[in-house]
Amino acid sequence: MDDSDTSGRTSAGRSLSGGLSRGVSRGVSRGLLRGLSRGVSRGLFGGLFAAMLASSLLAGCTETPPPATANGAATATPSATATATASPTADSSDPWALRGVERLVSDSKRLSALVKTGAAKEFLSRASLLPRVEKRTLFFTADKSKYYTEAQAAALPEDARAALKQQVVDEEEYYNTHYGSPLSYSRPLDILFSRGVTLPAGSKYLDFGYGYIGHLRILASMGVECTGVDVWALLPVLYSFPGDQGAVTGPAGEKGSVRLVDGKFPADPAVVKSVGAGYTLITAKNVLKRGYIHPERPVEHPEKLIKLEVSDEVAIKAFHDALAPGGHFLIYNIAPALTPPDKPFVPWSDGRSPFTKAQFEAAGFEVLEFDKDDLPAVQAMAKGLGWDQPMDGEPGMDIQNDLSALYTLVRKPLAQKK
């Protein structure tokens, strides 16, 4: 998901504070915080804080209900497809002013100099293949628990339709959803590729709490069968237009796909069944944080925590079962600096694994890295993504003093011990 956040999801709340919360809509702390304010993946879990994102997404929202005809029936405008015409170009002399695909392409060139593996560089280079997206209008309930396309809103009873609020999503928000750049996945992917992990054509990849679609589409263009699972009510509606999901063909004829699953994994057996198994790689970015799952200090707003709704053992087993033998599971967390002892605890600032090394091993995993520090690389990436740049009259993030990064990598053995 890049970053850190919490917002409109209902299962994993994360919202930032101070500079971080600013990042939620910036991207870094957006990105950073994807997990933060994303919360959900955040939602992914069970019901977190769907309401928070709401506030960070209200930037494009109004209370205008779907238009209605003379007989009271609402009318919908044609849906935009994922291959729609590009939006107007921003001032190219200022790379930080670019938006949407143009910004992703610009950022990819800076990040390419930071990654070491050819596969990570290839991932970044394919940002230019992302389809252009026209603005699309969505509608949602006041509590952000339900979202609708124009056609779906038009089919509602008049009183229900009149109570909806409107949100216009542009290309920038389509790819970032206020959680930050999907290119932030280049760092965890570079770690994996440098360790010999591969995603060959036809391999399966699962992102737990995906939060946005860009990284999935890029990997699909490389021939990977990508699945994302999340609980944020916005996502299955935002990404329900023609071309959003399904088969993706790469420039050399690679055949990949994007599939999105809505619901609580692993609490809901139907969602577990839909997600399936046989994955070469599973990632959880800015979602599975100790501060969210097992906070060790009092939390002022427990609704911002992530509730998996199952025991640690059941959750770990679900990830283990979903992997193919030899598959890897990466927990990668970017966070603000850990909250000082004399300040109100910010749950998402504790980016340690919520599960212990002993718990992973008891479930049959090989632990390759546990809570390994990755701060220097993330500081470089943050600079490449412009997290330190001023935005909307506010200063950029202090990437030297208010940033942390930890990851845990485990592997399902090729042959299980008897």
Explain what you see.
It is globular and about 55 Å long. Helix 11 (214-221) links the parallel strand 5 and strand 6 (225-230). It is of the alpha/beta class and 418 residues long. Residues 1-62 and 68-89 have low confidence and may be disordered. An eight-stranded mixed sheet has the order 7-8-6-5-9-10-12-11, sandwiched between helices. It has a four-stranded antiparallel sheet with strand order 1-4-2-3. The chain is 29% helix and 18% strand. The two termini are 37 Å apart.
Distance from N terminus to C terminus (CA atoms, Å) equals 37 Å
H-E string: HHHHEHHEEHHEHHEHEHEEHEHHEHEHE
Strand order of the largest sheet: 7-8-6-5-9-10-12-11
Average residue-wise pLDDT: 83
Class derived from helix and strand content: alpha/beta
Strand content: 15-25%
Overall 3D form: globular
Q: Which spans of ≥5 residues are poorly predicted at pLDDT below 50?
A: 1-62, 68-89
Q: What Rg, in angstroms, do the CA atoms define?
A: 20 Å
Number of contiguous helices: 17
Number of strand segments: 12
Largest β sheet strand count, sense and barrel closure: 8 strands, mixed
Q: Into which percent range does the helicity of residues fall? A: 25-40%
Task: Quickly list its features.
alpha/beta; 418 residues; 12 strands; 17 helices; disordered N terminus; 4-stranded antiparallel sheet
List the helices and strands and how they pair.
Layout: H1 19-26, H2 28-31, H3 34-38, H4 50-57, E1 61-62, H5 100-112, H6 118-125, E2 136-140, E3 147-149, H7 150-154, H8 158-162, E4 165-169, H9 171-176, H10 186-194, E5 204-208, H11 214-221, E6 225-230, H12 235-238, E7 246-249, E8 255-262, H13 269-275, E9 279-285, H14 290-293, H15 312-322, E10 323-335, H16 357-362, E11 366-373, H17 375-384, E12 404-411
Parallel strand pairs: 5-6, 5-9, 6-8, 9-10
Antiparallel strand pairs: 1-4, 2-3, 2-4, 7-8, 10-12, 11-12
